[in-house]
Write a structure and sequence with these properties.
Blueprint: H1 4-10, E1 31-36, H2 45-59, E2 63-68, H3 90-108, E3 112-116, H4 118-121, H5 126-132, H6 139-143, H7 146-152, H8 161-164, H9 166-181, E4 185-189, H10 193-207, E5 212-216, E6 230-231, E7 234-235, H11 245-253, H12 257-267, H13 272-284, H14 290-304, H15 306-319, H16 332-338, E8 340-343, H17 350-356, H18 363-371, E9 375-377, E10 380-382, E11 396-401, E12 408-412
Parallel strand pairs: 1-2, 1-4, 2-3, 4-5, 8-12
Antiparallel strand pairs: 6-7, 9-10, 9-11, 11-12
Helix pairs in contact: 9-10, 11-14, 11-15, 12-14, 14-15, 17-18
Length: about 425
């Protein structure tokens, strides 16, 4: 079995760390924490990468604390933001906390202890905070942050005192957990490196003690340059009400061959031997998307469970033509929820179906798509303007614009 340092290297989860030797992670159990601010009522799959890092630490015997930012969420982390954040209400923060903790419970079960920093900030005295924390944080250190320099520049949007002080709050979180819980390590995404370093510096100045930070790389979509977890339609959420399990599954099915192996390493708990086997099978026939299918199944099962994964798998088989749409009786209702659904006659207008389903914005665009050979029925390209009886399989067909699954409509007699 790999050591933790070996596994983190193999999975591509090593970014920056204050450890001089990564093998320090292979020794005695370490109590560590990861923080998350409840700025929304769900995590995105970008957050899931950090959660998978935590899973690896737990698997190798380290003890995890999850800090939910009931206090920091009231301010909002300014790092990486070009403009001042809109404050959310305490009620919204409280609702978001409940939703996010529930998601982490599904991922970790009882393997993590959850703490909320509002518990120690709600009664803190402002003057005491300035004396106990502010006095130990150099202004040069705070002003030197890249995002502060950007926000204060002529082209920047400016920064409020509240957002400027965010780093003090997060630094105090680490100090509090170090003193009260014997937490000596913070794990985070690379975008949190600066905030985390402020915590170990405060611990050193206040207590003379030693603490560490370990960060994992942010995953970036190679096609868009955006943080991983964004799509054309917006963020990919872990909440099924925001991103359905089928759409979630299909996001992973659609990742490219160039990045699928690295995503299998980061977002699944599959061992090296199994991933090597998957990639070997995949390279034999990439068109079958074996690696993407395994990735989609594993991540969807982790987030949504077996039943929703099986449903998403079946629906995707119909959308990809691996199963004929005429056999989709038990999956019809799910299909109608996932893609547009329209009715027609066996010699009805394809132009009308394209417009009614939203695959075309007008009759003119629909005719242009047909003439450009950009429309297919059950995977077969067509350029005619009317359906034929043979197009239908058990009274239904799939009409698609282009190649994307999301640009598909169910057409029924």
């Amino acid at each position: 079995m790999m050591t933790l340092s070996e596994e983190l290297n193999w999975r591509g989860m090593v970014n920056q760390t204050t450890f001089t030797d990564l093998k320090s992670l292979d020794g005695d159990p370490i109590k560590f924490y990861m923080g998350v601010d409840p700025s929304a009522d769900s995590m995105q799959i970008g957050n899931l990468a950090a959660a998978m890092l935590v899973k690896n630490f737990i698997k190798h015997g380290h003890e995890a604390v999850l800090l939910i930012g009931g206090a920091t969420g009231l301010i909002g982390d300014p790092d990486g933001k070009a403009q001042e954040r809109q404050l959310i209400t305490k009620e919204e923060v409280d609702q978001n906390k409940v939703a996010i903790v529930e998601q982490y419970r599904r991922l970790f079960g009882d393997q993590v202890r959850v703490v909320d920093n509002i518990d120690w900030f709600k009664d803190i005295n402002y003057l005491d905070f300035l004396r106990d924390v502010g006095k130990h944080v150099p202004m040069r250190q705070m002003l030197g942050r890249d995002f502060v320099q950007t926000r204060l520049s002529d082209e920047g949007g400016g920064i409020s005192y509240a957002e400027f002080s965010y780093v003090l709050i997060q630094a105090y979180d680490f100090l509090k957990l170090y003193q009260d819980e014997q937490v000596t390590l913070q794990v985070c995404g690379s975008d949190q490196w600066g905030n985390s370093i402020a915590g170990i510096d405060l611990i050193r100045r206040k207590t003379g003690g030693e603490a560490h930070v370990y960060s994992t790389p942010l995953i970036v979509n190679p096609n868009t340059g955006q943080k991983f977890g964004k799509s054309e339609d917006g963020a990919i959420w872990l909440d099924a009400a925001k991103t359905s399990p089928t759409k979630f599954y299909q996001f992973w099915i659609n990742v490219g061959d160039a990045e699928v192996e690295s995503l299998l390493k980061v977002f699944t708990e599959l061992p090296k031997e199994r991933i090597d086997q998957i990639m070997s099978e995949h390279s034999g026939d990439p068109k079958q998307r074996i690696a993407q299918t395994e990735l989609a199944r594993e991540v969807t099962k982790l987030v949504h469970g077996d039943q929703d994964t099986q449903s998403a798998d079946v629906v995707t088989m119909y959308l990809t033509g691996k199963k004929p749409i005429g056999e989709a009786d038990s999956a019809l209702e799910t299909l109608r929820q996932e893609i547009a659904s329209v009715h027609t006659s066996d010699q009805g207008s394809i132009v009308d179906a394209l417009v009614q389903s939203g695959l075309a914005s007008s009759n003119t665009e629909a005719r242009r798509l047909l003439s450009d050979n950009a429309v297919s029925i059950n995977g077969n390209k067509i350029d005619r303007e009317n359906f034929e009886q043979d197009d239908f399989n058990n009274g239904r067909l799939l009409l698609r614009r282009g190649k994307a699954f999301k640009d598909t409509a169910l057409v029924e007699l």
